[in-house]
Design a protein that fits this description.
Elements (H helix, E strand, L loop, with lengths): L7 E4 L3 H12 L4 E4 L7 H5 L3 E2 L2 H5 L5 E3 L4 H8 L3 H4 L3 E4 L5 H13 L3 E8 L11 E6 L1 H6 L1 H5 L3 E4 L6 H28 L5 H15 L3 H8 L11 H17 L5 H15 L11 H4 L2
Parallel strand pairs: 1-2, 1-4, 2-3, 4-5, 5-6, 7-8
Antiparallel strand pairs: 6-7
The structure holds ligand FVH.
Amino acid sequence: MAKTRVPVAMLGMGAMGRALAGALVDAGRPVAVWNRTPGRADDLVRRGAVEAGLRDAVAAGGPVVVCLFDHASVHETLAPVADGLRGRTVVNLTTTTPGEARELAVWADAHGIAYLDGAIMATPPMIGAPGGQILYSGSREVFEEHRELFGLWADAVYDGADAGTASLFDLAMLAGMYPLFSGFLHGAAMVRAAGITAAEFAARAAPFLAAMTGALPEMARVVDGGGSGDAGQSLDWTAAALDAIARASREQGVEPVPVEMVAGLVRRQVEDGHGADDFERIIESVRG
Ligand code: FVH
């Protein structure tokens, strides 16, 4: 059988699982789909996917791609079919911590399963469209063997043999994204109190915030010890600026919680005598 005709088993038909399976169906790949609650893949079945019981889906022959809610649901799903997975390949695209990914890799190895972990840096509509990335780590052989398949979903990036690395990058990047989104929504609440819509605010904030990300490489240079860290704004200055933002927020009747989180990190460094240092110094407030 030609490699592209080997059926891919897709476990998990949530929003992301359906998007991944849909991209394969669109590319003419045979796909066997399974979901704990049957019927969530009806549209895919109409388009050519085969809905199967768990054991039959796993027996389909090709790689078994897992996209479930969390680490626990992956174990709950794979444990009963571990015998059927011996000698086979599992690609786990469920969001897990690095430690959980490594634990799954060890579990897979103990059951004779080749394991590749993945982290999806995309939303379901981005699957099969430009702009998405999926990070992989674990078995290089599995990554190389299924590279073409992975390319149907998004840009595929291999991050090395440690199964935890893809998750580490994923969650570290999300650690940046969620505070950014919270900050945007905080700002939207502030201007809304003045009758400005979130859409108007987004049109102003998006280019500004995008331009600000240009500062990241220089911040990184300072953190890595290659920059002076004295070119920007001191933490004393930043503390005053954050205080002004918090006061402005309260004037608008909005609780400045996201900004207070940052102010707390700054305050710790100022209290430790680093008020003259640059903003990058607050990394010391989160280091263990
Ligand atoms: N959706 C997104 O934008 C993000 C983008 C980045 C990566 N994530 C991760 O992808 C995993 C799946 O996400 P999802 O969007 O498909 O999630 P849901 O639509 O909530 O579907 C969850 C599926 O998991 C099944 N499930 C839940 N618990 C169990 C269990 N104990 N045993 C077996 N299956 C389970 C659930 O089945 P059902 O409720 O329909 O029966 C869904 O198929 C996730 O790790 C994201 O972090 C997506």
